[in-house]
Amino acid sequence: MSRDLPALRASHQDRDRIVETLQVAAADGRLTPEELETRLEAALSARTLAELAELTTDLPSFASAVAVPKDVLVIDQRGGKYTRAGRWVVPRHIELRPKHCTVVLDFTEAVITADTLLIDVSLRHGKLLIISPPGLVTLDTDGLTLVFSKVKQRFDSGGDATRPQLRIELTGTLKHASVVARPPRRRLFAT
């Protein structure tokens, strides 16, 4: 593969694409934390497309998984419950505009491709539930305006060093609403 691209110079966008591919591979358990760190350093310092190609030759193609997420996920639901769980690719920005609705964002199996997620909130008479394994997510609520509302964070200490960390910045307004951040519930019985 590297012979096909001998001296073509890599762009910032090319490097970013490889970094995202490596992060997805690490989240899938295909790379150890040490391998990820080594390959990320090599990707960020690569000068040619050939150098970048060498970093992913032993990995399956993640082009579809990386290209799927939109830059912005808009959630504008009236009533009921909206859930994003399982294996989903986290966008860089979420616009949250529900009314009388519970929104669940479960990061337990999510593929994180950026270090920061901006959630712009306009939530009335509802709840935002953020579920995250210990140490994966940090929550910044300094940009929130609370009107008869509350924010509860119940994250455990510790964490998984093999997964990328995600900083969630919440901005906007909660009116008669709540944000709850907690770890996943433990299963009492194995199936």
Biggest sheet: strands, sense, closure? 5 strands, parallel
Strand content: 25-35%
Instruction: Tell me the Rg in angstroms.
Output: 19 Å
Roughly how many Å apart are the termini?
Answer: 44 Å
- This entry's quaternary arrangement is single chain
Tell me how many strands there are.
Answer: 12
Structural class: alpha/beta
Number of helices: 4
Q: Given the C-alpha coordinates, what overall shape results?
A: elongated
The helix content, as a percent range, equals 10-25%
> Biggest sheet: strands side by side, in what order?
1-4-7-11-9
Order of helices and strands: HHHHEEEEEEEEEEEE
Residue stretches low in confidence (pLDDT < 50, at least 5 long) are 1-6, 62-69
Can you walk me through this structure?
By secondary structure, the chain is of the alpha/beta class. Helix content is 21%, strand content 34%. The chain has a 5-stranded parallel beta sheet, with no helix packed on it. A 5-stranded parallel beta sheet has the order 2-5-8-12-10, with no helix packed on it. Helix 1 runs antiparallel to helix 2 (33-45). The radius of gyration is 19 Å and the shape is elongated.
